């Protein structure tokens, strides 16, 4: 059954912080042709690729590590997550880390932590949000249904100061969530399994104060929590979402999310009106399915960029569902997430990439 908590204002304004060649095909008349798409094939020694509308790689950051995801900053540098694991307590190829890389791939800073996983979100103050695993306390673990024993994990959202490596702020899911309200996975050693975090600035429509938007895959739940108080002011999902990824707040106040769902159902991308939980737009198609990873981004022209992660397919659709652009990662390697960046959005160190 879906549960929603509301403290939503009607006005929206734009803390924790203080924001081998794949192929492409496009229909320029319905596409955001000026942009470049950032993604990384999930390989053991991966690179982050910027590709144009023709599918050509116009810039590349080579890391020599297992790549997870990355986000560009306004100056053309990139924040990346490397050597992170999908599950706690499994062997690692190296220490999970977040790094800032300049345009030429030089390391500006690093933050290492064995418990890092899934996502990193740059903040307006220069810090970054990240996700860490932590073991639940025996008292909190005893509140979980079905009953669990041994090492059992929840998530912490942290704000990291790249200059010092200090944790400036943290939000512990096991302390802020009403554990009894959820049914845990019967087979996993994780309660929450956070797979995405976004920063919501002051003036956001949920509570008006700096907050976080988090996706908890194992609970089929997305929620908003205030940075200062830790209070959860909105949540949605059980019965409506299944194993979702990458919720984001749109300019119209709605939430866009990749709803992975089960294989027999197929995946979808859904736009949710938070006040009622109504799905006001969705994309579904025959053979469109990724049971894990994946994401979606609403573009400046109203189209939606979709990462069908398990197949390595990244494509763009119009509001009516017409495919405007399509790209496959090299060798169809899996892709955790993809981002489109407009030509005017970044102070590109090498403007010739648009020539």
- Widest β-sheet, arrangement of strands: 1-24-23-22-21
Termini separation: 52 Å
Count of the separate structural domains: 1
Which CATH class is shown? Mainly Beta
Q: Got a strand count?
A: 25
The chain-level mean pLDDT equals 92
Poorly predicted ranges: 1-14
Name given to the CATH homologous superfamily? YVTN repeat-like/Quinoprotein amine dehydrogenase
Here the CATH topology equals Methylamine Dehydrogenase, Chain H
For the structure shown, list the relevant keywords.
five-stranded antiparallel beta sheet, 355 residues, mainly beta, 39% strand, disordered N terminus, 2 helices, single chain, globular, Methylamine Dehydrogenase, Chain H, four-stranded antiparallel beta sheet
How does this structure look, described?
With 355 residues, this protein is mainly beta. It contains two helices and 25 strands. It has helices at residues 138-141, 173-176, and strands spanning 24-26, 36-39, 47-51, 57-62, 67-72, 78-82, 97-101, 107-112, 116-122, 128-135, 153-160, 167-172, 194-200, 211-216, 221-226, 232-236, 245-249, 255-259, 268-273, 278-283, 295-298, 304-308, 313-317, 323-328, 339-341. The longest helix is centred in the middle third of the chain and has 4 residues, at 138-141.
